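Extended Data, record Diaminopropionate ammonia-lyase
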Amino acid sequence: MFLPNQHPDYRKPLDPADAEILGVTAAKEVERYLSYRHNHVPTPLHALPGLAAELGVSTVHIKDEGFRLGLGSFKALGGSYAVIRLVLEEASRRLKRAVDVAELHTTEVHAIASGMTVACATDGNHGRSVAQGAQLVGARATIFVHSGVSDERVAAIARFGARMIRVEGTYDDSVAEAARVATEKGWTVVSDTSWPGYERIPGLVMQGYTAMVREALRQLPTPPTHVFVQAGVGGVAAAVAGHLALAFGDLRPTFIVVDPARAACLYESARAGHPVKIEHGEPTVMAMLECYEPSLVAWRILSRVADAFMTVDERDAIAVMNRLARPVGDDPTIVAGESGGAGLAGLIRAAAAPEIQAALHLSEMSRVFVINTEGATDPVRYAELVGMRPDAVATTRGADA
């Protein structure tokens, strides 16, 4: 399914608050915070010339977030950044002076952090980031997971010292339960989705993702003409689209939001013209994108700066995982988790459909940018779908110009 953006706000400027969160100045500040993380290095950017030739476009570049901060996902940039910001803000309030990230590991800051508990709901990756951020600053973390989250992903979060709570139902049920319990206990919810009256912290999470875009723009030989990014609640898609719109203005690349067909809350919101909660159906293999209601902040941004919305099927996602693990020609091998290659799957589907090609002006001159948002965050599931263990896939490391 494919739908050009027909919202009345399409191409209008971003809301000033969103522009402040996602602008160049804010992104530079995120990068400054990252410079205080001992394991921070830019993630690789790979050229896929073989795939580009097959699809009939000039270039395809993929940013590989499977190497991000030891967590294997772009989410490492968001939750932990928000936790650090919140701890430093609380320290500033209590110490009655501005406390900078340079003081993150001081005794004073850790003493304050030790009395704080952060909480969130997660499909896996965001919870790991929040838990890692809490461990880094000495705070406590309680992470809520729904019944569909694998034991492997739960264990990956728990290793950061987080308390884990299982919730029956879907991701959206776990979001509601996390908010309820946190309010009751006086904890701070660090969610990557937003709802009425709760926008600032999800905005900080999205702000963390802008560092990934700045890295990519430095690594790319020329700016992209088209960007395909997958969406769950829409946070990463909105962060990437919003930052590109602010950085390039009228010269920004064409931006396409890619949803799983079984959890297409942004596609259905675009069709309705307003945020909608869709019915929970059969689970999607793209587990990190299995969300049934969009983030309000993300929707507000995407309704203005996304050019189109589309969906991909289960077989599309699995095919991309296998294609990246067994590339042709000079393309590097890349480990992409079940949700990691959904944006690329959108490109492949678009390139195979003449009507979508025409609508997006996708041609042999197009320079396409996509993001592998996660590596094999569930190695057992990856091996089932690809037929190889992730450690057996010889991943090319480093950036290709």
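Summary. The longest helix spans residues 200-219.
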